[in-house]
Amino acid sequence: MNYIVLDLEWNQSECTSEDMPVDGLPFEIIEIGAVKLNENREYEGEFHQVITPQVYNHMHHITGELTSITMKELQSGQAFATACESFINWCGDDFIFCTWGPSDITELQRNMNYYHMPLLPYPVYYYDLQKIFSLIYEDGKARRSLDYVVNFFNIPLSEEFHRAIYDARYTADIFKKLDIEVVKTYFSIDTYQLPASKKEEIYAVYDDEKYNSYSKYISRGFENKLLVMADKSVTTTPCYRCLRKLKKKIHWFSCNSRIYYCLSYCPDHGFMKGKIRIKKHDNGMYFATRILKLTDEEGAAKIYERQAEIRKKRREKRRRTAATP
Ligand SMILES: [Zn+2]
Fold first, then answer.
1. What is the pLDDT of residues 203-225, one digit of tens each?
2. What gap in Å lies between CA 271 and CA 280, rounded to an integer?
3. Does the structure show a pLDDT above 90 at 265?
4. Ligand 1 centre distance from Cα of residue 238 (Å)
């Protein structure tokens, strides 16, 4: 299996009267850069293509500041569909994407969808090396810029940043320095394509106590948020060590109907905290991602506190509303 280390540059609307955002394409890809490595992470080749925009014809000021790409240069590129088709062919049959951050695979597929191209085979797993770097070298939560980590590893600065092919090369250099077992254990899942049915829903367990230990579930799409939280496969809290269906100490509660928390207890493995995030997909459907994580007494106490805080706020709000004549 090959690794395709991918970096994209994209442009967006300036939100002026002549340049309004277009439905289904908030970010238009203007450059694809990729490095192919074999299973031993040795260089196999690279892909680079500049793309002529068909939607946004002004360079957004942020894109213009970040990259050295000019609209003039883009005019000598290819249309997205042509470029993307050659890119996908170049990737081959057996590969996994590696990226810096979680956005590239989503935006690639969103652009493919905009041009009615067949999407990547479902489910789309990839390695987010920005996340992996944080797991191994930092707290797992911080997210560092590519230039920070290039500097961290003393990788020679041969090219500028924010050009797709140079960033892909830097990302490949970083990839070679990361422990491959950790990279493979902490794979990411792109949610641009939602599970089409209950059977296709995703449940992944990440359990290495040295780095981070949790389970992740991604639901199919629902018509509205209430239906999401009414679904048993969304709200269940199995222990990811012993597979027991756990009883909840605190049922799912929320302060904003987008994020829910709960607390369960496993007789063998102790407290487990849950977090559900409800998101709206491009297709108008709502879906949930659920993280379950074993925790200690202190972690459990925090969930109790959070629930108490929300209850207090709600009571105060009710009192205020009742006091209004
Ligand atoms: Zn258990």
1. 999 999 899 999 999 999 999 99
2. 30
3. yes
4. 8
Which residues have CB less than 5 Å away from ligand 1 (the ion)? 239, 241-242, 266, 268-269
Q: For residue 245, report the distance from its CA to the centre of ligand 1, in Å.
A: 9
H or E segment at 272? strand 270-280
Identify any residues that bridge with 278 across adjacent strands, giving them in sequence order.
288
Q: Ligand 1 centre from 266 Cα, in Å? A: 5
| Domain edges within the chain | 2-185, 195-318
Q: What is the DSSP string of 52-106?
A: --SS--S--HHHHHH----HHHHTTSB-HHHHHHHHHHHH-SSEEEEESSSSHHH
- If you measure from the C-alpha of residue 277 to the centroid of ligand 1, how many angstroms do you get, rounded to a whole number? 23
In angstroms and rounded to an integer, the radius of gyration of the C-alpha atoms of the chain is 22
Residue 218: how many CB atoms within 10 A of its CB? Answer: 20
Distance 310 CA to ligand 1 centre (A): 29
Fold assignment, 2-185: Nucleotidyltransferase; domain 5 (3.30.420)
Residue 195 scores a pLDDT above 70: yes
CA 234 to ligand 1 centroid distance, Å = 19
Give tens-digit pLDDT for 128-156.
Answer: 999 999 999 999 999 999 999 999 999 99
Centre of ligand 1 to C-alpha 272, Å, is 9
d(CA 225, CA 26): 24
pLDDT tens track for 182-194: 999 999 999 999 9
**Helix, strand, coil percentages in the chain from 3-state DSSP, rounded to 5:** 35, 30, 35
Q: How far apart are CA 280 and CA 257, in angstroms?
A: 12
Q: Give the Å distance between the CA of 265 and the centre of ligand 1.
A: 8
pLDDT at 18 over 80: no
Q: Give Cα 282 to chain centroid, integer Å.
A: 15
User: How far is ligand 1, taken at its centre, from the CA of residue 58, in Å?
Assistant: 55
What pLDDT, on the 0 to 100 scale, is given for residue 324?
67
Q: Which of 85, 54, 87 is nearest to 71 (CA)?
A: 54
